[in-house]
């Protein structure tokens, strides 16, 4: 299915990442394309001002394709979406560490969060109940014997990172 689309592929990529969380950059017949929802291929043809969607027809893929078409129509028809802003540079590690510290302090209490490590790039969260967790910022790995605490820290940090860092293609 082809849909009229004259905006840049980067803008479409941004909105598709907002829609589905993960977009894979691929090349199809020497043309820039995106793999969305693992089953929908979105081929950008800027010379013709179109986007071609390809998928294997079934109920789920048809629903995903409809969602992608809705995004295409919204971006193409709304002039305020045509203004593309430059994505911010990757977040400064020191600033990100401060934000993680603040977030963990808000969730677990500031008295329970300690910055540790030779470069102050790890955090220890210790609760009165004896539960502890170590967060390594560089890899975003959480080590804890308590699975629910580990999952909470992973989720909080992932959401913070998604909120403040530019989207990346996988």
From TrEMBL:
Question: Matching Pfam families, A to Z?
Answer: CPSF73-100_C
Please verify whether the record's keywords include Nucleus. yes
Question: Which residue ranges does the record assign to the Pre-mRNA 3'-end-processing endonuclease polyadenylation factor C-term domain?
Answer: 1-167
**GO biological process, alphabetically ordered:** mRNA processing
Q: Where along the sequence do coiled-coil regions lie?
A: none
UniProt-listed InterPro entries: CPSF73-100_C
Determine the domain of life of the protein's source. Answer: Eukaryota
Keyword set includes Membrane: no
Q: Name one GO cellular component term.
A: nucleus
Q: Which UniProt keywords apply?
A: mRNA processing, Nucleus
Give the principal location in a single coarse category.
nucleus
Q: Where in the cell is it found?
A: Nucleus
Name used for this protein in its record: Putative cleavage and polyadenylation specificity factor subunit 3
| Taxonomic lineage | Eukaryota, Metazoa, Echinodermata, Eleutherozoa, Echinozoa
């Amino acid at each position: 299915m082809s849909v009229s689309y004259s905006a840049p592929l980067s803008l479409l990529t941004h909105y598709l990442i907002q829609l589905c969380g993960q977009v894979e950059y691929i090349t199809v017949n020497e043309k820039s394309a995106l793999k969305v929802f693992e089953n929908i291929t979105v081929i950008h043809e800027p010379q013709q001002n179109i986007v071609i969607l390809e998928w294997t027809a079934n109920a789920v893929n048809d629903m995903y394709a409809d969602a992608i078409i809705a995004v295409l129509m919204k971006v193409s028809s709304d002039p305020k979406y045509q203004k593309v802003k430059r994505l911010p540079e990757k977040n400064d590690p020191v600033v990100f560490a401060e934000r993680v510290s603040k977030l963990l302090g808000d969730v677990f209490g500031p008295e329970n969060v300690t910055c540790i490590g030779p470069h102050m790039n790890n955090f220890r969260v210790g609760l009165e109940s004896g539960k502890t967790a170590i967060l390594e910022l560089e890899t975003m790995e959480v080590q804890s014997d308590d699975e629910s605490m580990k999952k909470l820290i992973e989720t909080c940090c992932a959401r913070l990172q998604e909120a403040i860092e530019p989207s990346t293609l996988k």
